[in-house]
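Handoff note, outgoing to incoming analyst
You'll be picking up this chain. Sequence as last confirmed:
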Amino acid sequence: FYVFYAMPKDVLQAYAAQELYNREWQYHQDLKLWFKRGSPADGLAVNSNQFIYFDINSWECRIFGGPQPASAATTGPQQQQQQQQQQQQ
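Most recent structure output, in case you need it:
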């Protein structure tokens, strides 16, 4: 994640993105965040249907457990981001 966020518009950013895609992360272009479906390896239940996202503010992976959209999060994570912004105020 560091290379992706620290080197915008650089060739290394593209390589970092490809590696994240290889590790089943998906980039949400509107929110500019990386998401991945949770798995037992992440400490989640097998049928939890939760998403994990990389929070660039705290620099850690967090669990998003709201309503799940059909494809890699279009409305749910946006609501999560709005809640985080409200908490910071």
